[in-house]
Amino acid sequence: MAAFGFCGDWCLLVCDKKIVAVHSKQSRDPYVFDCSTVEKKPKNKTNENRSNDDGASEDTGSDKVLAFAVSPSGKLVALTDDTKRLILLHCGDASWQCISIRFVVRRCTALVFSQAEDELLVADKSGDVYSFSVVEPQREGELKMGHLSMLLAITMSPDDKYIVTADRDEKIRVSHFRCPYNIQSFCLGHQEFVSALLIPSAHSHYLLSGSGDGTVKLWDFESGRRLQSCDLKHLVEKLSSEADEEKKPTVSHITSSPDQYHVAVLCERLPTVQIFTLNLESKEKLVPHTRLTLPHCPLDMTFDLEGRLWVLMDSSDKMLQMYSQRHGSWECDAESQDLMTVTEAFQPHWKTLEANTRTNSRFEHLVKRSYDNVEAYLHKKQQRLDEQQLKRTKTHKVNDNKKARKEMSRDVTQSST
Q: Is pLDDT of 357 > 70?
């Protein structure tokens, strides 16, 4: 996994097994947390016996970071890795601290803090959501709710009233936080897996969702009513083959500016960022504003506290790009001192990440494959009918021949007598 974010004035780079924090304003040593150096879950007796009995071994992961989240205040960071560890970090003004290392039941796909920052919700590949206490950082997680398919995204309303979860079966479920068995609504309408969710903090009754069907939708999520749908097919450049032209962009990330007026949408493996304006007072609430063309395919993006858009790209030479809004348009700010400082600090860690690791698709295996076997079925059916007709024709001819020989034999017998 390769991702980028902000924790206050600290820039965060998730780079394979590491999370690296660099201060963007002051000259400080970077903070590096390496998951490969952290203790693993010890084998218990049950697992040892199972290993001896049936050959199964303790599940070991690759230590790669699978998901991370920053708390609303920017003082806490949570990450989970392929070895099923859940790590909670505290970001201070001058230093970082590892608060706790706990273990999850299954590999996780998404994390989110409650607005009160007293709970951390963890969504996993089996469709379950677990709640981990932040106030009691050593307490084990509790099962909160579950889906019937893999969860891909999770978020919470700014008032901590609702949990919003999205799965690979195109469903968005809105559940009450304190009693998740009580479902408020479903937001239905996507044709592929739902891969990104965002509730703008200034517009707490509205939800933005992105999907593998190449659309971004705006919802009144309490009622489940869809307000608008924007198709992103125009982001896909004209491809050579007709088969490729049918592919739709997969929305991988949605984020909003601090003033909640601009929304940026990132699609997997497309060198563009689509920026919308969000005005809930107008008829068209989500309006395309700017399309940024990038020199390389983006991996992640985020806004900083000053409203600048940072884009992490799949390139060893130019890994970060920053855009600032001037006079109503977004312009590349390549000469920014903050950008150069952060890039220089991240570069040594970034070069250790293999290119094929950076470009691995998170969603390619989730796309539905359609198979048209009707034509083959009709062809085989026609073959069977032709064979049956041919068989009947041959049988009819044989019977006619037998009948003719019989009549001829009778005529010969009669003439001889």
A: no
CA distance 404 to 400: 6
Correct CATH for 147-366 of 2.130.10.10, 1.10.3720.10, 3.30.1490.20, 3.40.50.300: 2.130.10.10
Question: What is the C-alpha separation between 122 and 151, in angstroms, rounded?
Answer: 10
pLDDT tens digits along 179-216? 999 999 999 999 999 999 999 988 889 999 999 999 99
State how far the Cα of 346 lies from the Cα of 15, in Å rounded to an integer: 9
pLDDT of residue 180: 93
Asked whether residue 351 carries a pLDDT value surpassing 70, the answer given is yes
Burial class (CB in 10 A: 0-12, 13-18, 19+), 10: buried
Range 88-103 burial, b when 16+ CB lie within 10 A, else e: bbebeeeebeeebbbe
Instruction: Give the span between the Cα atoms of 79 and 67, in whole angstroms.
Output: 6
Do residues 232 and 274 touch, judged by C-beta distance below 8 A? yes
DSSP code for 255: E
Q: Which of 29-43, 189-203, 224-238, 371-385 has the highest mean pLDDT?
A: 189-203
Backbone angles phi, psi at 50, to 5 degrees: -65, -40
Distance CA 256, CA 302 (A): 8
Instruction: Return d(Cα 323, Cα 283) in angstroms, integer.
Output: 28
Q: Report the alpha-carbon distance of residue 312 to residue 331 in Å, rounded.
A: 16
Angle ∠(37,40,45) on CA atoms, nearest 5: 155
Q: What are phi and psi of 270, to 5 degrees?
A: -120, 125
Q: Would you kindly state where each structural domain of the chain is located, as residue ranges?
A: 147-366, 376-417
The C-alpha atoms of residue 273 and residue 297 are separated, in whole angstroms, by 10
User: Minimal CA–CA distance to 265: which of 246, 252, 277?
Assistant: 252
> What pLDDT score does 248 carry?
84
Neighbours of 346 (CB within 10 A): 21
CA 172, CA 92: separation in Å to the nearest integer? 35
Q: Which phi and psi angles does 56 have, rounded to 5°?
A: -75, 145
